[in-house]
Design brief:
- This is GntR family transcriptional regulator.
- Residues 2-69 form the HTH gntR-type domain.
- The chain folds into two domains: 4-66, Arc Repressor Mutant, subunit A (Orthogonal Bundle), CATH 1.10.10.10; 71-208, Four Helix Bundle (Hemerythrin (Met), subunit A) (Up-down Bundle), CATH 1.20.120.
- 72% of the residues lie in helices and 5% in strands.
- It is built from ten helices and three strands, in the order αβααββααααααα.
- The chain has helices spanning 4-16, 29-36, 40-52, 71-92, 98-112, 120-137, 141-148, 151-164, 168-185, 188-208, and strands at 26-27, 56-59, 63-66.
- The protein has a three-stranded antiparallel sheet with strand order 1-3-2.
- A hairpin with a 3-residue loop joins strand 2 (56-59) and strand 3 (63-66).
């Protein structure tokens, strides 16, 4: 059974921290407790966990504040993603890629149906899953867990990018198609180039925001 703290932690990470309109906002423990259906104690415990991850800032007499992603943090996130995702592509290309290509194709098709701002969070959740699937296919469980730890920041950054640039969803789909095509054809340089181009474009959109 999921504990109140786990329920609050998951809700905050998936639904509150990813809301572009709430970046920098101070959170009301009572409001959150009412929305989630738990007491304030699990909310406080969840906020302490998020503070340990530098996702919220605990301010005396003010409470917990959602920490907006800084330009430096966004840049470092994209650099780290590039290292991990390029390595993963290198590992999967020499092997049997049929199952991976089929899974990525399905995710890309699912993402294509999620157009419009009302689907922004779900679109980015599938976006993360697309990249995470490539990383998982590399077969390094420690690397996979490390990459999964970036999920909240990736989704926050991705949602903000969609709001920052009109037409970004279609651009993401085009960039994902290029990554998929390179992996499907077994072309390592093309895979590296497609991953780098995708991350560099996302970084530019976020920093221009």
């Amino acid at each position: 059974m999921t504990s109140g703290r786990e329920k609050a932690y998951a809700f905050l990470k998936e639904n509150v921290l990813t809301d572009p309109d709430r970046q920098g906002e101070f959170l009301s423990e009572q409001e959150l407790a009412n929305r989630i259906g738990v007491s304030r104690t699990p909310i406080r415990e969840a906020l302490l966990l998020l503070a340990a991850e530098d996702l919220v800032r605990l301010v005396p007499k003010r409470g917990a504040q959602i920490v907006p992603l800084s330009g430096r943090e966004i840049t470092e996130l994209m650099e780290l993603r590039g290292i991990v995702e390029r390595y993963a592509a290198e590992q999967v290309i020499p092997g049997d890629r049929d199952a991976l290509v089929a899974e990525l194709t399905g995710l890309l098709e699912r993402q294509r149906t999620l157009s419009g701002p009302e689907h922004a969070r779900e679109f980015i959740a599938v976006d993360h899953l697309f990249h995470a699937t490539i990383v998982a296919a590399a077969g390094n469980s420690l690397l996979n867990r490390h990459y999964d730890g970036l999920r909240s920041r990736q989704i926050r950054a991705g949602v903000v990018a969609l709001y920052n640039q009109q037409g970004r969803q279609e651009s993401v789909l085009t960039e994902h198609r290029a990554i998929l095509a390179a992996i499907a054809s077994g072309d390592r340089p093309a895979a590296h180039s497609a991953i780098d181009s995708h991350l560099e474009t996302t970084l530019k959109v976020l920093l221009a925001g």
